[in-house]
Amino acid sequence: MARRVEIPVVYLSGLAQGFALVTVPAASSLLTSPRGYAFTSAEYGALFVPMVAGAIAASAAGGLLALRWGLKRLFLTGVSLDVLAMAVVALSAAFLGRHTPSYVTLLVAMLLLGFGFGATLTALNSLAPGFFPKRSETALTALHTLLGAGTALAPLFVSAAVGRGWWWIPALVAVVLLTLVIVGSTQPLLISQPAPPASGGPFSFLRNISGRLWAFLALVLLYGIAETLFGNWAILFLHGNRGFGVRAAGFALAAFWAMVTVGRLLIAIASVWLAPRWFYRTLPVLLFAAFLLVPHMATPAAAIAAFGFAGLACSAFLPLSVGFAEEQFPRLAELMGGEMIAAYMVGYGIASFAVGALVHSGAARLGNLYSDAGLLAAAMAILAFFLTKSARQEPRAHNQPG
After folding, report:
1. Higher model confidence: residue 390 or residue 67?
2. When comparing pLDDT for 370 and 125, which is higher?
3. How many beta carbons lie within 10 A of that of residue 349, not counting itself?
4. pLDDT above 60 for 205
5. Residue of 253, 259, 229 whose CA lies nearest to 239
6. CB-based burial label for 196 (10 Å; 0-12, 13-18, 19+)
């Protein structure tokens, strides 16, 4: 009976987490507008540094925290931090037109969001498959599909409400998340847990992993850079550089996230007939094509189509990376999810901060960066091919990694 409440709480938290994650990037035109927050490109990019730092710390420590605290406490802590983050984002609207207070407020909000994202996603990645142990891959795909749906909805809501009144969107998300915390606190949120590692801190397991697993982490880092170029910079590129309307740019960003979600669903279904490794090898090739295509879109409709194609190219790559890594290194599976998310967030941070600094200094234009990023996709394609060419499995150790 409890599962009837636990399962909706977990999956709706994924939806709300996706919405929260994209709320600030979806408002990038307001954040950089002289009539809005008036941040520079470099300041906008730097907003994501505390978020990335918090997410990396929470993701890297999340596996051990789950073993010591339990998944319920980790989950409630993460979602509570998300509540605070969205409340502070809403508060920033009170300082619109006042540069320093608004910027500091958003920096605090992004730090809270980073900690919340890392802790919440680590807990969700264990809770969802734990509820359905015989269908764990389907359960995890469904979770990431809802998370993707949240990221797709955020740009639509924010682009329709950009202006001084936009604060109600993060405020509403905070209320939804708070409701999930209250309901979740009344539920067991229990699954069978692995035994805790014998010793060591959250990064101690890195001493025992092979070059092959380092390659997986590097691959996810590259993917984080690629996805963030689309997810965080789409509106500034289309509205600021190409001159498209804010709403059209918002639709393009929504198309990107929507196709990320649709792609995950399609690949999950198609994997019944085709081995997942073929999708894993193909997606970076599609991503390479997307990077070459996006800078040359001449109309809003073409831009929406191009960003949708980019979303399809990204879609299942991160979940497949985690799945292949856990399959090949089963003795590290209980810690793998958090560490892979940490690697992804490193890439997210590089694309957020470095791109902002390059654009602000005049050293690069966004359109050129999209074209140049095709090299990242090419490197991803090579790594993905060799990591699945001979999918060897590391034998399970008798002792836990420590």
Report:
1. 67
2. 370
3. 24
4. no
5. 253
6. middle
pLDDT level of residue 347 (50, 70, 90 thresholds): very high
Contact (CB, 8 A) for 254 and 151: no
SS (H, E, C) the chain: CCHHHHHHHHHHHHHHHHHHHHHHHHCHHHHHCCCCCCCCHHHHHHCHHHHHHHHHHHHHHHHHHHHHHCHHHHHHHHHHHHHHHHHHHHHHHHHCCCHHHHHHHHHHHHHHHHHHHHHHHHHHHHHHHHHCHHHHHHHHHHHHHHHHHHHHHHHHHHHHCCCHHHHHHHHHHHHHHHHHHHHHCCCCCCCCCCCCCCCCCCCHHHHHCCHHHHHHHHHHHHHHHHHHHHHCCHHHHHHHHCCCCHHHHHHHHHHHHHHHHHHHHHHHHHCCCCCHHHHHHHHHHHHHHHHHHHHHCCCHHHHHHHHHHHHHHHCCHHHHHHHHHHHHCHHHHHHHHHHHHHHHHHHHHHHHHHHHHHHHHCCCCHHHHHHHCHHHHHHHHHHHHHHHHCCCCCCCCCCCCC
> What is the Cα–Cα distance from 360 to 67, expressed in whole angstroms?
43
How far is it, in rounded angstroms, from Cα 334 to Cα 387? 21
Each residue of 293-321: pLDDT tens digit? 999 998 999 999 999 999 999 998 988 88
- The pLDDT score that the predictor gives to residue 337 is 65
**Domain 7-190+199-389 has what CATH class?**
mainly alpha
Q: State the pLDDT confidence band at 77, using cuts at 50, 70 and 90.
A: very high
